[in-house]
Structure formats: C-alpha cells, structure tokens
Amino acid sequence: MSELSVNHLLGIKNLTYDDLQLIFEIADQFKEVINRPIKKVPSLRDITIANVFFENSTRTRLSFELAEKRLSADVINFSSSSSSVKKGETLLDTVNNILAMKVDMIVMRHPSPGAPHFLAKHIKANIVNAGDGTHEHPTQALLDTFSIRSKHTSFEGLKVAIIGDILHSRVAISNIFALKKLGAEVMVCGPNTLIPKFIHTLGVQVELDVMKALQWCDVANVLRIQLERQQIKYFPSTREYSLYYGINKAMLDSLDKEITIMHPGPINRGVELASDVADSDHSIILDQVENGVAIRMAVLYLLASVRSNQ
Amino acid sequence: MNKKLILDQDLLKLTVSRLCQQLIENHANFSASVLLGLQPRGIFLANRIAAELGKELKKDINLGYLDITFYRDDFRRRDTPIVANETQIDFIIENKRVILIDDVLYTGRSVRAALDAMIAFGRPAEVELLVLINRKYGRDLPIEPKYVGRTVNTLESQRVDVGWSEQGKRKDNVWLVNKA
User: Do A242 and A155 share a structural domain?
Assistant: First the structure.
C-alpha cells in the first residue's frame, strides 16, 4: 500500500483502513522532519495550494498553512469575510476563479455540510475538507487518532469516549468513523439534547453520565460546546453544563486508572475542562496540535502525488 | 530471467573489509567523521561498515540513516507515491566529514537528493560517497563515488540486485539481472 484510495480528502467515511495506516506512516516521517533544525522539505515545490475559509478558524488554518510551507508549496489564503462572496458570488464561481490562477489544491472550510463534496464533483483540483458545517473534519480526526496511536500501542479494544456537544460536532463524526475503522470502541457522552437521534447507527454507545463514561474509557476526547451553532437552548446555562459535564482533577483522581485527555481546541477553560485537567500530564492537547502539522503534511503529500496520474 | 552473480558472500565480505581499510586510511580514527546510510537499501552496507570499523578501531562510529523520499526529483512523475522511511541521525553533522553510503550508484539522482536532505542537518566540512556497486554507464548527473566496492558495466535493460542476509535472504549476494 503506497497510495490513497481517494483523490480528495472529503471525509473519513470514504477512507479505508489502509489509507489511515498509510497516512500515519507518512506522518511519522514528517513528525521527524518538523523536529529538525531545518524543518522544510522540497516535496511540493511546484504545487500551489489555496486555503479557502468560509468560516472562522485559527488553529486549523495555521496548521494547514504551516504544513504547506514546510512542504515548500506556494500558498494563497482566502477568507470569505474579505471577499466577493459578500457581493453575492457563488461558491463554484469563487473557486473556479481561484483555480484559473493555476492552483493545484484547495483546502476548504465551509459552513454548509457537503460543500467540499459538491466542489469535488465540479472542479479538477484536489480538495481537502478542513471542516464542512456539522458534517466532517477529517484532518482533525486523523490527528486525534494519530495522537492516540503514539500514546497507546493498539486501537484494538481501545475504549474512547467522546464527551460534549456531539450534535454540532464534525470532530465527533469524523472521530467516530476513524476510530471504528481502526478497531476501537467508541462511546459518546453528553446531555440528551446534544446527542444526535440516530447516533447509535454509527455503532457507538451512548452514555448520559459523564462519570460512567470516564470509568469506561481509556481515552476521553472532550469537545467544546459550540454556542455559535446553537440557535435554541439545549441546556439551561453553561454553568449548569459545567457542573454536570465539566471534567476536573478530582474526577480523574477518583478513577482507579489513568486516562488520556484530549481536546480539539479551542478550550473553554472551566466549562468542559478545568484548567488543572487541561494542563495535567493526562492531557495530550498540545501533542495534538504538533501532530496536526505532521498529519496535514502527510495528507497533502499523498494527495499531491496522486494528481499526476489523472 | 537470467542473472549473473557479481559478488558472493565471501567476496562481499572481502570487499567490505577493503572499503573499511580505505576509509581508515583517509579518516584515521574517525574522530570527526560520520557515516550516513541511505534509506532504504544503503543502510545494510552502512551497518556492516560501521560494525567492522567499530571492531577495527575499538570505538563506536557515528552512524545515521538518511531518508531522501521528500527530496527526490521524480515526485509526481511516478505512478504511485513513494513511501518514506525513517531518518535517524542522532548527531550533528556541522563541520563533520560525512561519508554517504549506498548500495548501487546508477543515475546519481538518489545521491543528489541525499546531498539536499543532508544539508537539513548542518553544514558538513566534507562529503564523500561510498558505494558497493558502481554502474559505470547511465549517469544522469555529474556524481562519482570516492570508494567503490565493484565497478560493473551494465545496460539499461539490466538491474543490480543486492540481497543481504539481514533482509531475510539466505546469503549475501549481488546479482546482475536482465529485466524481462
């Protein structure tokens, strides 16, 4: 296996087990590269990548941009707030205009689920989904599982709990797909109102009591409450949420085992995670960020190398 | 498929010993010299040489593995992506005398990529190239080895196969193979 089964990274759903392993394998090498004194390799020097962000992002965008620059690609950035999208241009027109400037790959974040899939059908460039609405966020799931992989020897039988706002979380969906493909057991935990109705069809357990979820799991991936996506109130107050679902040091200490704490960021300290947990030895939150660059380098590298076949 | 044996186990052992003696002649006690084996196949030869030098000089020789995948010039010109191998260099090569080690030298493109890759670890004082098999014709770049195990005249339709017992082969053997 030295090739991805796809030409675009639209979601984890379309990837195979072998794809995931290949991405991890390449990411291992890039992780070594970004820890060198000279962190740059010339692999993508004849490739131009456009980062097209129709939604706010700091971490993902910086991470992608850094990954692209470490691979020596040329990078252009676009954000909808300062563009003609405000003047009524369609998505396809916007992207076609960018491609007319001879761009080879598009990294896109869009508030509408399925936007990158639509794009992939209509344009020639490789598309990397950097988050589409509440649908998927494949590179986040890849870096999460990559981080778990460096901490735990095997995914087989590993128990991972995803805790928080599952309803609005593309990170949760992509993580579920990735973890299931790798052989882990997955549980989602959160207030009943934030658990999607048909989530069990993805083969995950549902738990409403956060303490029970913590007792069950080896890894807890804690998600942020996405207030900006919530049009109605799903719980009375963030204070109440934090009281019932916030994770603090005392809770972890009461467990008879050590569990790994993850968070895709940005953290709302004191809401879903107490500071003493976020900064503790249990937490691999900053490893996740480091791994994010390596994983994105691997994805771009593998997709770019397929392109010449078309 | 017909093939011809270029080096057998005994000859190969002699060749490696000779290469080690030549290295010692130029690098004395290896105080400022390091070995870099090229991934994936140059590392077996590099391991052998490091072991033999270590025995001869009674000290540990600095040995690293260099992967050139991300520095190759045929990226996107192949049917499938090239999967990278581990780069493992635990020392600084700044101002060191570096000996690059590979099994077969043919077009010289791997060595070109290796020179590029190596620079990411510092500015060496000097770089030399050691190869087990030097294919005389077919060089695309002006690159020549300083230490050679065996020079062979080959055609484009031929391939040199180096098999090491470390790879699970029964014996060390170097074959010249006519491609079908």
Answer: yes
Q: Return the CATH number at A162.
A: 3.40.50.1370
Asked if B71 reaches chain A (Cβ–Cβ under 8 Å), the answer is: yes
Domain that holds residue A301: 12-135+289-307
3-class SS shares of chain A: helix, strand, coil, % to 5: 45, 15, 40
- How many angstroms separate the CA of residue B114 from the nearest CA in chain A? 12
Distance from the A26 Cα atom to the nearest Cα atom in chain B, whole angstroms: 6
CB half-sphere exposure, B1, CA atoms < 13 A: 11
Instruction: Return the residue of A nearest to B85 by Cα.
Output: A29
The residues of A whose Cβ lies within 8 A of any Cβ of B are 2-3, 22, 25-26, 28-29, 32-33, 36-38, 40-44, 46, 71, 301-302, 304-309
Q: Is residue A2 part of a domain?
A: no
Residue numbers of the domain that contains B64: 3-72+81-178
**CB pair distance less than 8 Å for B67 and A29:** yes
CA distance A32 to A243: 41
Asked if A147 and A278 sit in the same domain, the reply is yes
Average pLDDT, chain A: 90
Tell me how crowded residue A154 is: count the other CB atoms within 10 A of its CB: 10
Q: What is the rounded average pLDDT of the residues A89-101?
A: 87
Prediction ipTM score: 0.71
Residue A239 resides in a domain: yes
Q: Which residue has the higher pLDDT, B87 or A195?
A: A195
CATH number at residue B10: 3.40.50.2020
**What letter does residue A39 receive in the DSSP assignment?**
-
If DSSP states are collapsed to H, E and C, what string results for B15-59?
HHHHHHHHHHHHHCCCCCEEEEEECCCHHHHHHHHHHHHHHHHCC
- What chain A residue is nearest to B118 in terms of C-alpha separation? A38
DSSP at A131? E
- The Cα of B96 is separated from the nearest Cα of chain A by a number of Å equal to 16
Alpha helices in A104-185 (DSSP H): 115-122, 138-151, 170-182
* Residue-level pLDDT at A60: 93
